[in-house]
């Protein structure tokens, strides 16, 4: 066996073999082949197809000898899957992916098969879009609001659609942003995937509510004139379209007590509130609406009450109100049973207690003051009250003794007296009595329990356990709170009914042991009996007050009896 190669052929040439020999040999080789098996081949109308659509296969086989037969295999997901006959054949594909197709041609010289691997690419539509997520409510003018949908299998693109107006969608992927114009409207957002085979199933609608600002507030209604301290004042504005809340602005010192954030509010004005404007505007999640016009409120200042608010029962107090009083009922007493008040503010006490007095000025603003009516007392100071029985000379008296020879009273007084105030109209009417009033050894006594409502003029009468009832010459005025009265001169005493001492002091007569208004025979028996029985003690029969009834008690009684001494009064 010899090896052939070009170099060998060259060598053959060199060996001078004829070239024609080589050409004949090659011709024979080709002829044997062309006279043998057929050559299978085919083509297709399109090597890519969408699922459910068809392509057409055409036979392109050659070198056929005799009557050929054809056997086609169109691969996975094809319909028909296999077929015989030369074709052309229309084949539909239903499964995505790549498909291998083969054709076998058999003729008189035998079979030949042509296989084209992954020849056909079958595509499908994108899958259905899922659920869109993103804000369901936005505001007009809001930009860059994000929306997205889960990635759609098979999609090469995303088509977003908004049914409202004024929305600009930015992006073409599964996540976009939307700019809502200032006039954007409510609508539905949808999306579907796209690819070369077409559009996937559209998503469910994602509803987007595009909110606008509340409309401008209307006109406020309510009290335009109020008083400081006034409460329960209502203001309102018509419901504002689109508002979910209401923002009110009030004058300084005013505050909302009810209805906050609504279109009907109740306002309280403090006692220092000032005039100002009320405004309101609607609010919602998108912001504030246009504010209302100013509603001007005049806050009138409160009047004041001046004057003494405490008054003694029986007295009056004059109150004054600032400014101009109201035309009707400027002054009102809440408790007339305690005090009444006149239209000029004069408070007249009626009984002990308190009453709220209200003053109203011509603005209708009121102020109150509480008047207290108390039971007050006056003081009556008596001087130069000298009891004849105890008179000790030099304008002083001894202390009345008891049976132990010591002062009966432990308060340092000479003795105790009774002081009466008698009516100026009818002396028998006693308007006030004070008993057990200590009388000092120098003749002074004070009565501190005289009701203040005793404002008239009265006779003052002094009684003592064995002295003559002695009364002032005239009625004494008790208008003031302190009344001073001397009993030291006959001109002060009714009927000038005073005795006079050995040293020139005037004395209330003694010796009326039985207190019948006269020193007479009726006073003797008790003195005589007590004297006879050696009685001692703090007794009316002890005229000289030395603690025993004895001969010293007779002279005053006898002398006054002799002089027909008796009481003198109106
Ligand atoms: Ca008598
Ligand atoms: Ca005596």
Provide structural commentary.
Helix content is 8%, strand content 41%. The N and C termini lie far apart (193 Å). With 570 residues, it is mainly β. The chain folds into six domains: 1-35, no CATH class; 42-123, Immunoglobulin-like, CATH 2.60.40; 133-211, Immunoglobulin-like (Sandwich); 221-300, Immunoglobulins (Immunoglobulin-like, Sandwich), CATH 2.60.40.10; 305-374, Sandwich (Immunoglobulin-like); 377-562, Sandwich (Immunoglobulin-like). Residues 1-17 and 20-34 have low confidence and may be disordered. The strands form 13 sheets. A five-stranded mixed sheet has the order 2-9-8-4-6, with no helix packed on it. It has four helices and 48 strands. It binds calcium ion (CA) (2 copies). Residues 542, 544, 546, 548-550, 552-553 line the site of one calcium ion. One calcium ion (CA) binds at residues 542, 544, 546, 548-550, 552-553.
Which tags fit this structure?
mainly beta, Immunoglobulin-like, 6 domains, five-stranded mixed beta sheet, disordered N terminus, 570 residues, binds calcium ion, rod-shaped
Layout: helices, strands, pairs:
Layout: H1 6-14, H2 19-34, E1 42-44, E2 48-50, E3 54-59, E4 69-73, E5 78-79, E6 82-84, E7 89-93, E8 97-107, E9 110-123, E10 133-134, E11 137-139, E12 145-148, E13 157-162, E14 167-170, E15 175-180, E16 187-195, E17 198-199, E18 206-211, E19 221-222, E20 225-227, E21 233-236, E22 245-249, E23 254-258, E24 264-269, E25 276-284, E26 287-288, E27 295-300, E28 305-306, E29 310-312, E30 316-318, E31 320-321, E32 331-333, E33 339-341, E34 346-349, E35 353-360, E36 366-374, E37 377-383, E38 391-393, E39 396-397, E40 415-423, E41 430-439, E42 445-451, E43 457-463, E44 470-471, E45 476-477, E46 482-486, E47 499-500, E48 506-507, H3 524-532, H4 554-562
The structure holds calcium ion (2 copies).
The site of one calcium ion has 8 residues, from loops.
């Amino acid at each position: 066996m010899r090896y052939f190669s070009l170099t060998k052929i060259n060598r053959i040439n060199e060996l001078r073999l004829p070239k024609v020999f080589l050409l004949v040999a090659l011709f024979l080789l080709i002829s044997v082949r062309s006279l043998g098996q057929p050559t299978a081949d085919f083509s297709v109308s399109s090597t890519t197809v969408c699922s459910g659509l068809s392509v057409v296969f055409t036979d392109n086989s050659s070198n056929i000898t005799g009557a050929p037969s054809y056997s086609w295999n169109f691969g996975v997901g094809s319909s028909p899957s296999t077929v015989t006959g030369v074709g052309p054949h229309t084949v539909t594909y239903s499964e995505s992916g790549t498909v291998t197709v083969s054709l076998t041609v058999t003729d008189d010289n035998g079979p030949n098969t042509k296989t084209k691997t992954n020849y056909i690419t079958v595509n499908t539509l994108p899958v259905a879009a899922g659920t869109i997520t993103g804000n369901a409510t936005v505001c007009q003018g809001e930009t860059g609001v994000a929306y997205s949908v889960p990635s759609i299998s098979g999609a090469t693109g995303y088509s977003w659609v908004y049914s409202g107006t004024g929305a600009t969608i930015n992006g073409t992927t599964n996540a976009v942003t939307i700019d809502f114009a200032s006039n954007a409207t409510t609508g539905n957002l949808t999306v579907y995937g796209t690819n070369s085979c077409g559009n996937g199933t559209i998503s469910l609608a994602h509803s987007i509510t595009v909110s606008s600002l509340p409309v401008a507030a209307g006109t406020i209604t309510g009290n335009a004139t109020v008083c400081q301290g006034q409460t329960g004042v209502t203001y309102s504005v018509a419901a504002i379209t689109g508002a979910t809340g209401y923002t009110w602005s009030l004058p300084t010192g005013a505050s909302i007590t009810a209805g906050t954030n609504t279109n009907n509010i109740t306002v309280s004005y403090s006692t220092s509130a000032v005039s100002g404007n009320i405004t309101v505007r609607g609010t919602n999640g998108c912001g504030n609406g246009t504010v209302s016009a100013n509603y001007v409120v005049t806050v009138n200042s409160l009047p004041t009450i001046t004057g003494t608010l405490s008054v003694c029962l029986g007295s009056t107090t004059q109150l004054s109100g600032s400014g101009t009083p109201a035309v009707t009922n400027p002054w009102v007493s809440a408790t007339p049973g305690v005090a009444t008040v006149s239209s000029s503010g004069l408070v007249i006490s009626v009984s002990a207690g308190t009453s709220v007095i209200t003053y109203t000025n011509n603005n209708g603003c009121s102020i109150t003051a509480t008047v207290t009516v108390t039971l007050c007392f006056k003081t009556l100071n008596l001087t130069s009250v000298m009891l004849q029985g105890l008179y000790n000379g030099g304008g002083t008296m001894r202390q009345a003794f008891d049976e132990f020879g010591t002062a009966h009273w432990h308060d340092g007084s000479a003795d105790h007296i009774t002081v009466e105030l008698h009516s100026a109209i009818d002396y028998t009417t006693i308007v006030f009595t004070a008993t057990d009033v200590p009388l000092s050894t120098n003749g002074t006594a004070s009565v501190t329990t005289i009701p203040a409502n005793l404002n008239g003029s009265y006779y003052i009468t002094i009684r003592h356990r064995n002295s003559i009832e002695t009364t002032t010459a005239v009625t004494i005025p008790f208008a003031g709170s302190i009344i001073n009265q001397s009993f030291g001169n006959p001109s002060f005493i009714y009927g000038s009914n005073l005795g006079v001492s050995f040293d020139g002091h005037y004395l209330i007569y003694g010796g009326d042991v039985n207190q019948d208004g006269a020193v007479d025979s009726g006073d003797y028996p008790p003195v005589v009996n007590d004297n006879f029985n050696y009685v001692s003690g703090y007794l009316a029969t002890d005229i000289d007050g030395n603690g025993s009834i004895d001969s010293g008690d007779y002279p005053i009684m006898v002398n006054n009896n002799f002089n027909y001494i008796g009481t003198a009064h109106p």
